[in-house]
Amino acid sequence: MSSKYTIKDLLSLRYSTSTKSDIFFEWEGSIFAFIPGQPPKKIFNCVGMNVSKAKIEEGKLKVTGRELTYYLDPVTGEKLTTWDNPWTGEKNLPVVHIANDPVQMALPAVIPLEVRHNKFSQTSTIVSEIPLFYPNPLYTDDHTFDDFDSNKMYEAGEFFTFKCNTKELDEGVSSNKTINAVEVNWSRVSKFAPFMKMGKTLPAGGYLLYHCTGFKLPEGSTADDLTHPLLVNEISGDMKSYASAPDDYDPSAKNVSSWSYFRDHFDRYQNEPNATWPIPSSD
Q1: Could you count the other beta carbons within 10 Å of the beta carbon of residue 203?
Q2: Which of 43, 97, 98, 53 is nearest to 73 (CA)?
């Protein structure tokens, strides 16, 4: 581990040294359900993308972006529209795919990065571990959402490792170059997705584990360069706004998460069983 790396290195590795560039990441993987006293069960595959812009301004790394993740049948790999809950027996639950817009953050530029080197492969990884604990958007005094998530607090974690060539990382800031050849491993631990309707069904302690690998698309790439056909088709069709990041970081904009998205579109989930998810967006 080294302490010589800073947010400027993260800018060139995760984003771009150009404040105007849209940078795409793509990932795919598996989602497992863990329930106390039961064997872990793979319930979904998934595929997703993120498009972001970033800049260092006022002593902070300011990031704005959008991201999609789709729940896929674990056998066929097809995009799911409905799901049968094997624990409750409930059939044809609408699948609410992840469509977070915007996704923003502002990190102090003085934070040192945790970087690990592999001298044999001449590669380095930047590690990012983000524990999450805040009031659950679905917790209300009238218990409207208890069937979907009855917890008072939202508990989750996002865990990333970004891997690149060590020489490129060391030269990135001095040369002001964006690092294009980057791989990512992403794991996420959270309660069951709200659409699964597991809020009051099972003993406390159950959770989902998302386990994914992915990569950065070279600077200058567009949504048409994403490699998974589902992502390309969705963005060229119903999800056109995800072809680019927002124009600029907006401190007044609230981040969207799976939980807040479900809350904000709950009427659609309840009353339109054949509705399209994610909700089609404008360009």
Answers
A1: 9
A2: 43
